[in-house]
Write a structure and sequence with these properties.
alpha/beta; UDP-N-acetylmuramoyl-L-alanine:D-glutamate ligase; 9-stranded mixed β-sheet; 4-stranded mixed β-sheet; 13 strands
Length: 313
């Protein structure tokens, strides 16, 4: 299967803490996570032809991902199985500050990825390559692999999309900013999150943040602002995409859903503005269930919401 969107990064088996049962015991819902894997699922559910680049273990968690990707129609030809490394795992808990992540990824197969493992022909044959700050933050080898993948993509005329997804537990802000900003300088689509950007740039005004990333070299900036929507900016123009009300259950995969849905709609021929409005709805719907992958909506549901909104205008 040839793919249009190749996502690259770290999948992690997910356990989301559920409310205590009648016996007071702790319970978890097993699922799938990892930011770029979530985005791949989101894009596939909007109809895009998607593949994934990573390494996973020859373990139960890796087998689970292979089954999930197959069910979602995601091409796994560029996924490496390592017998001597594990697939990462994380737990999600919730408190007054929102969702909290507890990762167990040291020595994972994805963290052992290096440039020598890259499927360069597959990258050159895609239309968009998508990676993130987590894709690079898990190890020096993984960071170098993403930079090499970007170079291969640019040489082949393949567009590059990049989401910051800063995680303080992975690396300090100064190093994260240096690496991410070097990647974003090569990006056709930059997807910084508002919280990430305030840490990485020291800026708080959305327009100033957009200007910062445009000056780095990104052709287009799509600043994700959560409940406040998004800001779409190029060197020539910018537009605000207003926020939408969500029946909030778990926002863990909302930003990833936004990126995957946006890229899927761009690949389908939408303008960037139309894609951003679509992605905004998809991200809101992704907040209405528990876990990262399960609540990601399919295209029909997103269209239903968009059509209903159009009728009310």
């Amino acid at each position: 299967m040839s793919v249009d969107l190749l996502c690259m990064g770290e999948p992690m088996l997910e356990f989301s803490r559920l409310p205590a049962g009648a016996d007071g015991g702790v319970r978890y819902l097993e699922g799938h996570g990892g930011d770029t894997s979530n985005a791949a699922v989101a894009a596939a559910r909007q109809g895009a032809r998607v593949g994934y680049i990573t390494a996973i273990g020859q373990d139960m968690a890796g087998d689970s991902f292979m089954r999930m990707w197959a069910q979602e129609g995601i091409d796994t030809a560029t996924i490496i199985r390592m017998a001597d490394a594990q697939t990462g795992v994380y737990f999600i808990t919730h408190d007054g500050g929102g969702h909290q992540f507890h990762h167990y990824r040291a020595g994972s197969a994805a963290a052992r990825y290096t440039p020598a493992l890259l499927p360069e022909a597959a990258i050159a044959g895609a239309k968009i390559l998508y990676a993130s700050g987590i894709s690079q933050g898990i190890s020096a080898g993984a960071a170098d692999a993403v930079f090499r993948a970007i170079a291969v993509a640019k040489a082949a005329g393949v567009a590059v999309a990049y989401d910051t997804n800063y995680r303080a537990k992975l690396w300090p802000p100064a190093r994260a900013a240096a690496v991410m900003h070097a990647a974003i300088a090569e990006a056709d689509y930059a997807f910084p999150g508002m919280e990430d950007a305030t840490v990485l740039t020291g800026l708080r005004d959305p327009d100033a943040i957009a200007d910062f990333y445009l000056r780095l070299g990104a052709a287009m900036v799509v600043l994700k602002m959560g409940a406040d929507g998004a800001l779409l900016a190029t060197g020539a123009a910018r537009r605000r995409i207003p926020g939408r009300t969500a029946r909030l259950v778990d926002a863990a995969g909302a930003g990833d859903t936004f990126c995957g849905a946006f890229l899927a709609r761009v690949l389908a021929g939408d303008t960037a503005l139309a894609a951003a409005h679509y992605a905004n709805v998809a991200a809101v719907l992704a907040c209405e269930g528990l876990g990262c992958v399960g609540p990601i909506p399919h295209g029909a549901r997103v269209r239903e919401i968009l059509d209903a909104a159009t009728e009310l205008e």
